[in-house]
Design brief:
Blueprint lengths: L9 H23 L4 H18 L3 H9 L4 H30 L4 H9 L1 H72 L1 H20 L5 E3 H19 L3 E7 L7 E3 L4 H12 L6 E10 L2 E9 L12 H14 L5 E6 L2 E9 L2
Parallel strand pairs: 2-4
Antiparallel strand pairs: 1-3, 4-5, 5-7, 6-7
Helix pairs in contact: 1-2, 2-4, 3-4, 3-6, 4-6, 6-7, 6-10, 7-8, 8-9, 9-10
Length: 347
């Protein structure tokens, strides 16, 4: 924890405060007590600058006292520190002024009379300085706790993102392996091609595991690879169309964010229908927002099997973790068409 006076910009404020104290002290001695400008200035400089040089050490008393959980020990620490500091300050100041003005008996008598008041002022200065240091320490502790909480939140966020991605990848792998298994006997060439494409997909996925963001162009290339894998399985029953503006391609999106949506379209659209199903991807760039639409037609008479629900929910959670918003994924179903909209903030 940095010293508020010896380090940083606090030393300028500290110096300014004591310059004002010197001026105020001098003015009181000159105008109220009628001492000469020389004596007033010397008295003020000696007392205030000496205290200003001692006061930064009070920070260490505050720091040490804060470590104690016992109120009695805390009070004892400050009593001992204040007594030593104030008596040393008063003694050195008085000695210095007697040395400067040995031939001014009236002023020396004034110093003797004012000794008690000097001690009272010293106690007040000590109390105010310590109070300010406690406030600064509280602020620094608060800032440090806030910083630690942000670090923990980032670690938690990173861990949760990795957990969500670890749920998505096996989900896709299991579907693909089931597809390969179904093709092994009936279409061995198609199964071989599917294995190659699956290998390429996993190479991409594992290679990007440590990154949370990719360009939309990279994600579309990966999504197209996935659709190629599924087209091997379903043949003419699956069509894939995409309409993407060039302005969208360079925008960064969370990696593998599109793949679970395509999985759902295949699982609940193509798999459950005996008719051809078209999966459409459309992307457009709006001011401050990238909008991605993924839709597919489906057989309204079929009863789709109920899944585990981790696909769209994972996408929603990941978008919430990355962008801090819960309104970035919307789902609409009407007239035999299922549409998912993803909004990616670009500002």
């Amino acid at each position: 924890m940095s010293h508020p006076v010896l380090r940083g910009s606090g030393n300028k404020v500290y110096l300014l405060v004591w310059v004002l104290m010197v001026c105020l002290h001098s003015a009181v001695l000159y105008f109220y007590y009628g001492w000469s400008l020389e004596i007033s200035a010397a008295d003020s400089l000696v007392y205030n600058l000496l205290f200003a040089s001692i006061a930064p050490g009070f920070w260490y008393i505050v720091t040490f006292a804060s470590l104690s959980k016992d109120d009695l020990a805390l009070v004892g620490t400050h009593l001992a520190g204040a007594t030593m500091a104030i008596l040393l300050w008063a003694a050195l100041s008085g000695f210095g002024l007697r040395f400067l003005f040995p031939d001014h008996p009236e002023y020396l008598a004034f110093l003797k009379r004012a000794y008690i008041w000097r001690l009272i002022i010293g106690v007040m200065d000590y109390s105010i300085t310590v109070l300010v240091f406690y406030l600064i320490k509280y602020y620094q502790d608060l800032q440090e706790r806030t910083h630690r909480e942000l670090e923990l939140q980032n670690l938690l966020k990173d861990s949760e993102l990795r957990m969500l991605k670890s749920q998505i990848n096996p989900h896709f792998i299991f579907n693909s392996l089931n597809s390969i298994s179904a093709l092994t006997l009936s279409k061995p060439d198609a199964a071989r091609e599917m294995v190659i494409k699956l290998s390429d997909f996993l190479r991409y996925s594992l290679g990007q595991d440590s990154a949370h963001m990719n360009t939309l162009a990279q994600e579309l290339e990966n999504a197209t690879l996935y659709m190629d894998i599924e087209k091997i399985r379903f043949g003419n029953r699956l069509r894939f169309e995409k309409e993407v503006a060039d302005a969208c391609l360079g925008v960064e999106v969370p990696n593998l964010i599109l793949q679970p949506i395509f999985e759902n379209a295949v699982k609940y659209g193509v798999h459950e229908s005996i008719n051809a199903v078209t999966i459409r991807l459309k992307c457009k760039a709006e001011p401050g927002m990238l909008e991605i639409f993924i839709g597919n037609n489906f057989d309204e008479e079929s009863m789709p099997s109920k899944g585990a629900g981790i696909g769209l929910e994972n996408v929603r959670k990941r978008l919430g973790l990355v962008y801090g918003r819960k309104d970035l994924l919307t789902v609409e179903q009407r007239e035999g068409e299922f549409m998912v909209k993803i909004s990616i903030p670009t500002e």
